[in-house]
Amino acid sequence: MVGPFFDKVWPKERRFVDEANNSALMDLAVGAGTRFPEALLILKPYMAPYRGNRASFHGIIGSQAPEQFPKDLLSMIWRVVGRSDVKSHDLAELLDRLVKADPSVEVDRRFQALEQKAMRFS
Questions:
Q1: DSSP secondary-structure letter at 122?
Q2: What is the reported pTM?
Q3: Which of 60, 103, 100, 62 is nearest to 79 (CA)?
Q4: Residues 17, 48: contact at Cβ < 8 Å?
Q5: Dmax of the chain from CA atoms?
Q6: Are 114 and 91 in contact (CB under 8 A)?
Q7: Beta bridge mates, 88
Q8: What is the C-alpha separation between 70 and 97, in angstroms, rounded?
């Protein structure tokens, strides 16, 4: 259902790519379950880098996406956080889950850059 909606209904103009939509778009991608990679390909162009220092990852935290699709999820997180000033406790948990699911993501430069933005208290 994601594809037809975004093909026919969602505006294509760049001005509609807004960080305010990120949380809902990420939740929609994660909600696609086993079709997460396909949904991400459709939704990722509509996700914008966060401009502030707040980001919500609650929908992802409550899902199995980090364990099922670690590389795809890394790509999605990089899209919204990579070039932002976001620092997040949720980000630390997500990165830990990604590397546990697929240790090879730890050598990805995006992962390493995101690790610098993760807030840890241990």
A1: -
A2: 0.87
A3: 60
A4: yes
A5: 48
A6: yes
A7: 118
A8: 8
Residue 69, judged by CB atoms within 10 A of its CB (0-12, 13-18, 19+), counts as: buried
E-strand ranges in the chain read none
Q: Cα–chain-centroid distance for residue 112? A: 15
Closest CA to 19 of 43, 62, 51, 63: 51
Residue 76 burial (CB count, 10 A): 24
Could you tell me if residue 33 is left (phi over 0), alpha (psi between -120 and 50 degrees) or otherwise beta? left
What is the block-wise mean pLDDT of the chain (122 residues), using blocks of 10 residues? Answer: 65 74 91 93 90 83 96 96 84 95 97 91 74
Report residue 111 CA to chain centroid gap: 12
Gap between the Cα atoms of 72 and 80, Å rounded: 13
